[in-house]
Amino acid sequence: MTRPNFLVIMTDQQRADHLGCYGNGIVRTPHIDGLAARGTRFDRFYVANPICQPNRAALATGQVTSVNGCRQNGIPLGLDCTTYADVLRASGYRTGLTGKAHFQNVSPVPARQPEATGQGAKPPAPFDLSRRSQRRGPDYAHEIRKNWIEDPDHAVPRPYYGFDHLRLCIGHGDQVEGHYSAWLRDRLDGAPDPRGRAASLGNDLDAPQIWRTAVPEDLYPTTYVGQEACAFLQDPSDDPFLLVASFPDPHHPFTPPGRYFDMYDPADIPLPESFDQPTSARKDLPRHIQRVYEIGGEKPDAYWPFHSDAEATRQMIALNYGAITMVDDWVGRILAALEETGKAGNTIVVFMSDHGDYMGDHGTILKHGLHTHGLIRVPLIWSDPRRTAGVSGLQGSAIDFAPTLLQAAGIKCPIGMQGRDLLAEDAADLPVLIEDAGLAFASDDGCTASRTLVHERWRLSVFEGSDLGELYDLEADPHEVTNLWADPTAAPRKAYMMQHLALRMIALRDTSLLSTHQA
């Protein structure tokens, strides 16, 4: 059988219900909806970690973040980790990535460093670390934004995590660097750089994270990703290909260009049903979780979640929709370019996102903190010309993506890859484990991790160092407004979920290291 090609289209920080095919009646996404109509739409697909870098690592490796080591933003994916792109490349595939990778750190900000524990003298370096090999140095600095600002022609060794062809976008909104920087510079031909708030057109709306960009539509990062994807598809090679077109939008800041900025009227945007039950008013959460939202309130133009009023929330959602529709327009162009190659009949097209966004749930915007459904449930559309279209109710996780793709290519999964093929006839409906290292600076001791289990219509979340937690019946309470953690009538369900959380954590232990000798 002819090996299939793979076109993976990915967005950044897009929740599942911000697509027409997932029930949204306002945002216009006809091309993505068309993919869903021709393919399999997974209605219960979840992140393995609700933050960019760790979940992208889980998607790439098929491993939970406690195993691949990328447990939070700021820890790169190891260069010795095997990705699905590595496997396909070694199997004869032509591999390309255009847009956001986020396999490595994008900021050089020094992280909070823990101290050696106990009494006495500190062990001499490098023995002050229990794992001496750390992911640092020039080999792990290829996605640092300031390096591209200083050198727009920065060279990245190939293959890069399995990708021979690479066109990077680093950043979000209209504040993007990477290979995009040199592309933009060449097209500006000496004109002033139009990126960022300082260069905006001067009619900012009265809300955080919003400005009317001076970058025109034809020079915006979404256009760059789309054009580079189309160029990759035009290669006449007969080799099977893997192309990942990874858009930095609709991630904040909310700066869709040109007509997309005014495409949706904020007055037409309904607020989530939980909007008037803000997280800040809750008394059933540990202090370090509440602190995350306080930090966001102090810095609403940064990266932490913050509470917002109704008018500003509608504005942000409307602009988020504009960015999504621009991506959808480019999805249409990419699919048209695929058709022109004559290879569409043998190409599996996937649409997905790395994680979601609160987008007004419980009065909150962005991410971090609690694992509400808008943050952890993401789209997965799998359009395979060889398969019958339909909707899958099978519960899946980010760790299942790589095994599903490799099995579709007719390739066995590497030893230690933890997910399973979601399209297999005997695929089990497994509980989903979601790991989160938290924000270490939200507590004095840095103990802010949490674990979530989604299973049989329920969500359970437990917090490090706390007797408090969350338990929701997602069928009876889809907007997660009634926490049953302390409800005596829900105690049997809580015990059941805690047991399955422990069992799932055991099942997802690391099996990648092999025995060298047997007795």
TrEMBL record:
Residues 110-136 are annotated as: Disordered. It comes from the Bacteria. InterPro entries: Alkaline_phosphatase_core_sf (IPR017850), Sulfatase (IPR050738), Sulfatase_N (IPR000917). GO terms for molecular function: arylsulfatase activity. Pfam families: Sulfatase. Keywords: Hydrolase. Residues 4-411 form the Sulfatase N-terminal domain. Belongs to the sulfatase family. This is Sulfatase-like hydrolase/transferase. It comes from Gymnodinialimonas phycosphaerae. The lineage of its organism: Bacteria, Pseudomonadati, Pseudomonadota, Alphaproteobacteria, Rhodobacterales.
